[in-house]
Design a protein that fits this description.
It is built from 2 helices and 7 strands, in the order ααβββββββ. With 171 residues, the chain is an alpha+beta fold. This is Fimbrial protein.
Length: 171
């Protein structure tokens, strides 16, 4: 019985492997004719005329213009307060202060922490002395109804100014 099944399978395999007897040269010629008939001719390429740049007057367009100095502009102060450079590494320092919300205050008299909500919706605990906001805002005081920050802002003339900002708890 096994031999008969084996012979039957071999016969089917040999019959299935019968090669195509058409000559390859005829197939190649027919395929080439069909391929040539389907190709569309491309449109002729338009010639591009290059116009050379010749500067007559004025500044070069490839150089940035100089900043105009206004006569009424105040002169930069030589000696003024500069903050110490510090690397911004707090998670709340990448957000503008107006986008942060005070959501709660918890703790006892000496150990009070504030709960700040980010624009993404997560809540972060903040202690006194930590930094938050894009203007180097340092937490100075935390009260049950609000928290106070000290920000340092450039005045546009090379100096820096301090300002105090309060974030109030909304009811």
């Amino acid at each position: 019985m096994r031999n008969r099944c084996f012979i039957a399978v071999m016969v089917f395999l040999l019959v299935g492997c019968k090669a195509n007897t058409d000559p390859l040269d005829v197939f190649y010629v027919e395929a080439k004719k069909q391929g040539d008939a389907e190709v569309k001719q491309l449109e002729e390429v338009a010639l591009f005329a290059v116009t050379p740049y010749a500067q007559l007057t004025g500044r070069s367009p490839f150089v940035l213009p100089k900043q105009p100095e206004i006569a009424t502009q105040p002169i930069k102060k030589k000696s003024c307060w500069q903050p110490k450079y510090r690397k911004k590494n707090g998670s709340l320092e990448r957000y503008a202060l107006r986008k942060l919300r005070l959501k709660g205050v918890m703790g006892s008299n000496d150990n009070i922490t504030a709960l700040i909500q980010t624009p993404k919706g997560s809540v972060v605990k903040v202690h006194k002395g930590q930094y938050m906001g894009s203007n180097n805002g340092q937490v100075v005081d935390i009260k049950p109804q609000y928290m106070t920050l000290r920000e340092t802002l450039p005045d546009g003339m090379g100096c820096w100014q301090k300002r105090y900002v309060k974030l109030a708890l909304k009811h």
